[in-house]
């Protein structure tokens, strides 16, 4: 017997799966830039004594490339745990702002679903999903946000990051320092692409410029890791003042 309810459910599942696949498809160009960067991290971790088991634990439980590089850079034997926790917090502090900006898009979801989405959030999935929401519904981006598109992005980025950082352990033993091949330039290129996709003109980008200058000065004159927090806070303050001026 024909059931409208079953048909509607099947169409819903089909639509969700298509959005999931679309997220994976959109992530492919980004992955091409991330893979070399992941190999660099795995190589550097191996040089610090990390095993092929410990690297995926590092990259899988702390899914944030910037803080992982910072940890590897200051890693000692025995590790200084409090210092490593502080560095991780400072470098990952941008996720506080990113999570706050993403929260309105997923506020309709219960915590048991929203919290895992926030755990797997990274710079690329955050930027691409919000940009996609604005394209889908410019008047009300919150309605244009596709949860399954976001999940597809997170799935592809997470799996590729963990797999290729682990592969970097073996590749580093074979090739040595892979940065001599220019692999370390891949991640800055990825961020430039993300910024280009979010570009709305020079004036809205002024907080980016303020954040860049503040972060650069902090990088030169403050201890390792502080530049992320200084740059983030400076950008937010600049944005608040600019919004106030426009109103």
UniProtKB/TrEMBL annotation:
Cell membrane listed as a keyword: yes
Domain of life: Bacteria
Record's keyword terms, sorted: Cell membrane, Membrane, Transmembrane, Transmembrane helix, Transport
GO cellular component: plasma membrane
Family: Belongs to the AzlC family.
Annotated TM spans: 20-43, 55-75, 81-103, 147-175, 181-198, 205-221
Compartments in which it is found: Cell membrane
Membrane topology of this protein: Multi-pass membrane protein
Protein name: AzlC family ABC transporter permease
GO biological process, one term: L-valine transmembrane transport
PANTHER family the UniProt entry points to: INNER MEMBRANE PROTEIN YGAZ (PTHR34979:SF1)
């Amino acid at each position: 017997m024909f059931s409208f309810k079953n048909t509607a459910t099947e169409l819903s599942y089909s639509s969700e799966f298509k959005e999931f696949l679309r997220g994976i498809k959109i992530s492919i160009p980004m992955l091409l830039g991330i893979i070399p960067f992941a190999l660099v991290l795995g190589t550097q971790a191996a040089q610090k004594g990390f095993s092929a088991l410990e690297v995926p634990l590092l990259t899988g439980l702390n899914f944030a490339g910037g803080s992982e590089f910072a940890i590897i850079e200051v890693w000692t034997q025995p590790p200084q745990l409090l210092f490593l926790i502080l560095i991780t917090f400072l470098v990952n502090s941008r996720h506080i702002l990113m999570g706050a900006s993403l929260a309105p898009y997923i506020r309709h979801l219960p915590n048991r679903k929203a919290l895992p989405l926030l755990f797997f959030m990274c710079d690329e999935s955050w930027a691409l999903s919000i940009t996609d929401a604005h394209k889908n519904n410019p008047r009300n981006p919150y309605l244009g946000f596709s949860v399954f598109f976001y999940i597809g992005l997170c799935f592809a980025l997470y799996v590729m990051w963990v797999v290729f950082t682990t592969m970097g352990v073996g590749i580093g033993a074979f090739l040595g320092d892979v940065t001599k091949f220019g692999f370390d330039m891949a991640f800055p290129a990825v961020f430039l692409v993300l910024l280009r996709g979010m570009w709305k003109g020079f004036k809205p980008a002024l907080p980016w410029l303020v954040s860049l200058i503040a972060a650069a000065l902090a990088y030169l004159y403050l201890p390792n890791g502080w530049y992320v927090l200084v740059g983030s806070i400076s950008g937010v303050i600049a944005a608040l003042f600019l919004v106030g001026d426009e109103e």
